[in-house]
Design a protein that fits this description.
Blueprint lengths: L4 E8 L2 H12 L3 E3 L4 E4 L5 E5 L8 E5 L3 H10 L3 E2 L3 E3 L3 E7 L5 E7 L2
Parallel strand pairs: 1-4, 5-9
Antiparallel strand pairs: 1-5, 2-3, 3-4, 6-8, 7-8, 8-9
Amino acid sequence: MSGQVNWFELPADDTERARAFYAGVFGWDTSPMGEDYHVITTGAAGAIAVRDVQLTQPRIYFHTADIDASARKVAELGGKADDVQTVPEVGRIAHCTDDQGTPFSLYEPQA
């Protein structure tokens, strides 16, 4: 359903330490996907990733059935939407900010 949170990313300077922390707090297990990106396999739908200039705070992804229309609507309402990116075997994403500068992302699952 559009607008529901369906993924999140937690940034960490040390992903091994972060994985141990969240395993201790929530019992999460993770599985590596790519370079130093760890998908949570026994808990909420999300991942632990390396902190960088694009990922400085937790990032929330909202589901959309039509990412192109949603990205246009973000811009129409005074926000900013980056170019839509295709993630092979996953779907399409766009990183955005709302009209007050709060970051969020859009996610359209692969059909």
